[in-house]
């Protein structure tokens, strides 16, 4: 009788699988936390955010920079272009601050998974609980 060793699952195989599971858990937690940043905004509006962000950042760097999209939004909202530019810049900065924390946390946890040497190392890695605001 010949034994087929190709189907043998080693401890190293199990550990690699555990790492992949942990990465999936981290990514799912990141996705959930990130969704909170865009909750309540329709997809069509979110699709305009890169344009709004680019114009707001250009305006922040140079007050003479053209902001045609933001100016159109201002007209539709019934506010001045300056108000719209500032509102958009404020929201852009808030989003960037929040998202950098989320992305940085995900990357740190991913690195910890890659560096893990034992199942206990993996067990110690988890997405931080949200702090009440």
Describe the protein's architecture and organization.
This protein has helices spanning 11-38, 43-46, 49-61, 68-77, 81-115, 119-123. The chain is elongated and about 80 Å long. It is mostly helical. The relative contact order is 0.13. It has one domain (13-33, 44-123). It contains 6 helices and no strands. Helix 1 (11-38) runs antiparallel to helix 5 (81-115) and helix 3 (49-61) packs across helix 5 (81-115). The mean pLDDT is 94. 71% of the residues lie in helices and 0% in strands.
Give the SSE map.
Elements lengths: L10 H28 L4 H4 L2 H13 L6 H10 L3 H35 L3 H5 L10
Helix pairs in contact: 1-5, 3-5, 4-5
Using DSSP, what is the number of strands?
0
Task: Characterize the overall form.
Answer: elongated
Element-by-element helix/strand order: HHHHHH
Low-confidence stretches: none
What count of helical segments does DSSP give? 6
